[in-house]
Amino acid sequence: METIIELRDGEKPENKKKFIDLLSNAEDFIWLTNWYFKAEHIEVLTECLKKSQKVNEMRLILLIPASVADLNKLKEEFDLLQKQFSKISIKIKLIPRKLKQTLHDRYYYTKNQAWNFIEIDTLLIGQRATISQLKSEEFEKNVNQDFLRLWTDEKSFDMFEQWVELYDAVKIRQENLEKTYEDTKKRQKNANKQQTTFYVYKTINGVTIEGKDRVLIEIDEAIKELRTLEPGKSDGTSYIGFCNMSTNESLQFLRKSDDEWYGEVPIDSTEEWEGYAYKVFGTWDEMQKTLKSFFSEEPYRVLLPWKITRFKKWMPEISKRKEEQKRKEIFKGLE
Predict the structure, then answer these.
(1) This prediction's pTM
(2) pLDDT at 324
(3) 281 touches 256 (CB < 8 A)
(4) Confidence band of 311 (pLDDT split at 50, 70, 90)
(5) What would the mean pLDDT of 59-88 be, rounded to a whole number?
(6) What are the start-end ranges of the E strands in 20-137?
(7) What domains appear along the chain, each with residue ranges and CATH number?
(8) Number of Cβ within a 10 Å radius of residue 134
(9) Rounded CA gap, 110 and 145, in Å?
(10) Sign of the dihedral through C-alpha 11, 13, 16, 21
(11) Pick from 102, 75, 98, 74: nearest CA to 304
């Protein structure tokens, strides 16, 4: 059996077949970590279970959804999956984002096999990716450190056995965020009456625009530019930032992987900036909402759990293009 599976850009049917073949050949169990899981991804898992002959158990570790609506939809779909495959033990654990930050990679486990895996969404949108089998002699170590540790953590929720607690936790968090967002939005809207302009600085696909050029940009074009960021670039060749010309506040981005983005707000964005910043990880949808709020001069940092951190110079706009090693240092710091 192949130990490296290549998924090619634009080859959706072929990629899907490779994915299903891999999981359907599982023996005894399928254990997956898949952070940004959506209800529509269950269709792929259904095809895998239909084709499988030797699976008795499936366990999934997912991130807790941001809203009650998303949580309810996920629960409905998994209830149907349980009924459809009543002879297979299907268990779901949902973990908070903070716990997930201790493990960025995704994994797939079956009997005596551990694989470095992908987001199912990567498969469905037809992006380039590699699935690779890990060393068999480290199987037990990988399972214990990268799966069972999260599965047994007291902060995780069993979707079926702890549904009430899980639902209440998501509802309270959503209500608090919405209240904070609306209150802050009203205050800031009253404080900012004048029209604000923004400029872009970036290096994407070999094209560089420096902050000193003051290239103005509006929100629709900003979203298009952000979407073009290449994932996994640690050498300074793909980044983008936007600056509010009234406040001199900057919001800048890296794309860590296919649907995992890194956002940063330097606390002091001077030419020689070095010190502290707010940072956050999120999906494309979350970063898009954040950017829209930033351009609307709304409270964008209430949408995600931002943290304050200390960094050395890394963004070429801020550091005047210091050595390329700075980009490797920041990506190493994100792991």
Answers:
(1) 0.57
(2) 46
(3) yes
(4) low
(5) 93
(6) 28-33, 55-63, 89-95, 106-110, 113-117, 129-133
(7) 4-169 (3.30.870.10), 192-334 (no CATH)
(8) 18
(9) 15
(10) negative
(11) 98
